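Run: sequence + thiamine diphosphate -> complex structure.
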Amino acid sequence: MAKASGAAKNKALSKPKIVKNTTGAELSKAQLLEMYERMLTIRRFEEKAGQLYGMGLIGGFCHLYIGQEAVVTGLQAAGKDGDSVITTYRDHGHMLACDMDPKGIMAELTGRIDGFSKGKGGSMHMFSTEKHFYGGHGIVGASVPLGAGLAFAHKYRGDGQLNFCYYGDGAANQGPSLRDL
Ligand SMILES: Cc1ncc(C[n+]2csc(CCOP(=O)(O)OP(=O)(O)O)c2C)c(N)n1
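>> structure
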């Protein structure tokens, strides 16, 4: 099989485009294609992360989001610029959907200085206040109380933004999740 050229490699790592502020009924063909591109970016990123993990090049944990690409892509498409996002440990797809640089995420996974936490945090410890992404949390259910705090911050500031708080079904019966919902 022919090797990918430098340009093709860069394209594979280029940032997904952002579709925002839509309802399903309004989506144009171009927007649907952008969403497909984003889902594919997440899938390809995760396939590569899984491969690198298997090769021992990613330390610690590496929870993949394969099969759930449509969840974050659809929800983020309904949001507006400036909405905050928080999730648990299965977080690479959320970062990509927030338009965080895939190279920065992969650099973090592989423990390099160019990573979002300078290579010291790994898969579950990445943040970007610029992109309104607040982690990446290893504790099951931790995103819910923190997400409630982010939602209150939006309310107190009156900025009209929402918090998108993601959690797995394993967090659904956790005390803090139930209390803060
Ligand atoms: C408070 C707490 N208890 C236990 C764990 C160990 N743990 C890590 S992943 C996991 C399963 C979580 O399942 P779910 O929330 O449904 O997410 P999924 O991995 O299925 O996406 C558990 C129990 C943890 N990280 N935090």
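>> summary
Residues 29-54 form the longest helix (26 residues). The beta strands are 84-86, 163-165.
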